[in-house]
Amino acid sequence: MPSHEERLQALGIELPPPAVPKGVYRNVIVTGNIAATSGHLPSDESGNLIVGKVGVDLDLDAGFAAARSAGLAILTSLREELGTLDRVVRLVKVLGFVNCDPDFTMQPAVINGCSELFRDVFDQEEGVGIRSAVGVTSLPLGVPVELEAMVEITG
Amino acid sequence: MPSHEERLQALGIELPPPAVPKGVYRNVIVTGNIAATSGHLPSDESGNLIVGKVGVDLDLDAGFAAARSAGLAILTSLREELGTLDRVVRLVKVLGFVNCDPDFTMQPAVINGCSELFRDVFDQEEGVGIRSAVGVTSLPLGVPVELEAMVEITG
Amino acid sequence: MPSHEERLQALGIELPPPAVPKGVYRNVIVTGNIAATSGHLPSDESGNLIVGKVGVDLDLDAGFAAARSAGLAILTSLREELGTLDRVVRLVKVLGFVNCDPDFTMQPAVINGCSELFRDVFDQEEGVGIRSAVGVTSLPLGVPVELEAMVEITG
Q1: Are B107 and B25 in contact (CB under 8 A)?
Q2: Which residues of C touch B149 (CB under 8 A)?
Q3: Of B122, C107, C121, C136, whose CA–CA distance to A97 is shortest?
Q4: Searching chain A, which residue's CA lies closest to the CA of residue B141?
Q5: pLDDT per residue as tens digits for the range A81-112
Q6: What confidence tier does C155 reach under pLDDT thresholds 50, 70, 90?
Q7: At the topology level of CATH, where does B1-12+44-138 sit?
C-alpha cells in the first residue's frame, strides 16, 4: 500500500503554502492522538483568497473547487504540524460551512470537494469520516466555504 | 435501572431505518471511547425528508418534531455502529443547526426536540450533555434542522 | 509564572455569575482530560443578555465586547465545573458564531474578543488554540454571538 505522502505525489497534488491565521488562533492543535484544525479558507493558484457566495457568485463546480482548495490548505497545516501526512491514521471529521443564499440546498455536493480529496489521499476506508455541511449567511473575508477537520494520528 | 434499549422500548419508540449519507461521509465514527456522528436530517413517517424553514414553513411544534426525528436518526446510526444503545455511557454533545429566517430566535426550543428525546432514552443524568444551537441560512436538501451528536461508550 | 487564577486577578477581571442553560443541556462536560462547553451567550454588566446583529445593531467594537463577554461566561462555567481555572492546561478550541447580515465579513475580528481574553488569562502559548468563526442568520434569543470552547485539563 502506498503511504499518504506517496499517494499525494501519485495524484500530482502540490500543497499550497501554510495559511496565515486571520485572528488569534493557530492552524492545528494536537491533543492525545487527535490532530484538529481551525476553519480553513480557500485560495486560488496565486494564493489569493477565493471570495463570493456559492449559487450566486460561484456555481456548484466553483464551490466544489473552493472546498477542495480549503481541503488542500488543511493538508498543508497538518503536514506542517505533524512533519508528514504519513502520521495520519484516518480522517475523523469534517465540518463544512457554505456561504450561500437561503434557497441554496446543495451543501453536500459543495463539501464533497474536500471529502473526495481526503478520500483520495487517505484512501477509501481511512479517508471517509463523519461530516456536517451547513449553509451560512456569511464567512470571514467573504470566502465561499470554511472547513475544519479532525484526524487520528500515530504517536 | 432499565437499560437504554429497555427504556426505548418502554417509551414505545420505534427507530427509523438507517440514514443513507448524502455525500462522501459515514454516519458514525468511533475513536477511543467516543462515538461521534455526522449531521443527521429529519424524516417523516414515510421516510421522506422533512423540508422547510422553521418559523416560515414549519411552526415551533413542527420544528421541535423535526429535531426529534433527527435525534431518532442519530439513535439508529449509533445502534447500527455499536450493535446496541446499551454501550452508550452518556451523551457528551449535541450541535444543532436550525434553518430559519434572520428574525427567528427560538433555536433552543427547537433543538429541545432532540435533547428531550436523548434525556428520556439515556436518563436525566447521562442523557443531558453540552449543546450549541444556531440559526443558519439554509441546510442540505432544504431540511429544517441538522443535528450531530457525540456520546461516550464502553469498550 | 502566575497561575491562571492569579493572572485573572492581576487583569482585574471579575467573572459573571453562572449561566442558566436556555434548554435541555448543561454548561460543561468533562470527558477524559477534556472539558468542553455548550454555546455561551453574552451579557451586559447588569446580567441582561446583549441582543442585536453585529454590523447592524452593534458595531465591530460592540461585537468584540460581546464575544469577550461570552468568553467570560465560559470561564465562569469552567471554574464552576473544575473548581478552579488552574486545572486548565491549555485552550484546545473555540467555535464562534456571529449573528450578522450576508455582507458582514469580519467574523475573525469579532471572535478575537474571546480569543484575546483566553490568551491573556491562559498565556500566549497555552491560551491560543484552534478556532472557526462563521456568520449565521440568527442566534438564540437574538444575541450577537454564541461561543463554545474546549480545553485540556489536569486530572
Answers
A1: no
A2: none
A3: C136
A4: A105
A5: 999 999 999 999 999 999 999 999 999 999 99
A6: confident
A7: 60s Ribosomal Protein L30; Chain: A; (3.30.1330)
